[in-house]
Amino acid sequence: MELSSESKARQLLEEEANRIRLLIKNQKHSLCIAHCKAFEEVVDTQMYGLSRQIAFAISLGAISNVIGQQILSDLERDLNQMYHEVYQDQQENELGKEV
Fold first, then answer.
1. For the chain, which residues make up each domain, given as ranges?
2. How many CB atoms lie within 10 A of CB 23?
3. What is the separation of C-alpha 32 from the centre of its chain, rounded to a whole number of angstroms?
4. Residues 67-93: what's their mean pLDDT?
5. Can you state the angle between helices 5-27 and 65-98, rounded to 10 degrees?
6. 8 A C-beta contact, residue 1 and residue 9
7. How many whole angstroms separate alpha carbon 94 and alpha carbon 74?
8. How many angstroms separate the CA atoms of 37 and 3, rounded?
9. Reported pTM
10. pLDDT value of position 92
11. What is the mean pLDDT of the chain?
C-alpha cells in the first residue's frame, strides 16, 4: 500500500523530529547538556532546520499548517521535558554532595 503525499511528508518530518529527540537523549546523562553552549547551538540549529523543512512542506501543500505546528510543538515539549529532567537530576546530585 502506497502512502499519500501528506502521510509520507508527515512520516519523514516525524522521523527528523525523532532524530533530534535521540540526539538529546544520547546526551542526557552527560554534563554536556547542562554546561555546553556548543551543544545548545547544535540543538537550535537542528530545530531551525526542521522548522524550515516543515515550512517547505506546508508551502508545497504536502502537510497542513496545523500538522506542521503540531510536530514542532510536540518536539519542543519533549525537549523541554528532557532538559528539565537533566537539570533536576543535576540539582539533586549537587544537593547530595553538600550533605
1. 5-98
2. 14
3. 16
4. 87
5. 10
6. no
7. 30
8. 40
9. 0.79
10. 78
11. 85
Amino acid letter at 53? Q
DSSP 62: S
Q: Are 94 and 36 in contact (CB under 8 A)?
A: no
Neighbours of 67 (CB within 10 A): 17
Give the type of residue at 27: Q
pLDDT at 74: 96
The C-alpha cell 552527560 sits at 30
Tell whether the model's pLDDT for residue 53 goes beyond 50.
yes
Mean pLDDT, rounded, for 41-62: 94
Where do we find the cell 523541554? 80
The domain made up of 5-98 has a fold known as Helix Hairpins (1.10.287)
